[in-house]
Write a structure and sequence with these properties.
Helix content: 40-55%
Largest sheet: 6 strands, antiparallel
Number of helices: 11
Oligomer: single chain
Amino acid sequence: MTEGMHIPLETAAELVASLGGADFPHRLWQWLHARIPLCHLSAARFNQHGADAVVQSVDWLFSRSADGAQDSEPALLSYLEKHWRQDPLLSHITPLQDPQLVLIRHEDIAAQDYVDDVFRRHQISAECNLLGRAADGVYALALYRQRDQAPFALEELALLRRLVVLLLPLLVQHARLTVSLRRSQLPSLPHLFDKRLATAGIRLSPREQAMCHCLLQGMSAQGAAAQLGVKESSCKTYIDRAFLKLGVKSKAQLYGWCLACV
């Protein structure tokens, strides 16, 4: 089942020749599915300005499945429109430096509506994500198994881990030659922050509010100081005052405070 997981020269040449075209996802699916049984394959880019910065949005690049791409489209749309910020994969994507393989099962996901909409409704038992960072964000190639298929075996995961460094550059180049099929439309974190601030009746000074916007966009205190034209020590003062008024103690809690109104 897992023999020949290197990419033969002929197959590699076909994949490279099809980059930027509709045939690339099909060829990639055929080659992977012939060696590791899958129910579905999808590719996405998590748009991020650098490691540890906030992921701003997600681009769905392509999708293929055993029964045709259309079968999985409702799940992908639901993910982009409602669930991507609930994805435990984000905890691996945000600090990512080196290529990585991440296995996620539905029991790893805390958000029940996400599990119901994406995993249970489509009989998915697990997803294996091949992750790699590029200048414009983190690219993810996700391989899915259904409940009637065997779980990913350790041998398969080890072989896929070795494939990350071979497949991700192809995915990045394909994305650069095409446009994403859809982008997540969830409002930006600063927008959500202002929305909740208005409904919560909390008054921040313009500087305190601007500092929170900077943090929500993944900036450091030093970067925010440069953008706002103030001293770094002043930025830290604005942050402390804002956090006290909001009742939060960290950037992670600030993100959660924003998302509470979604």
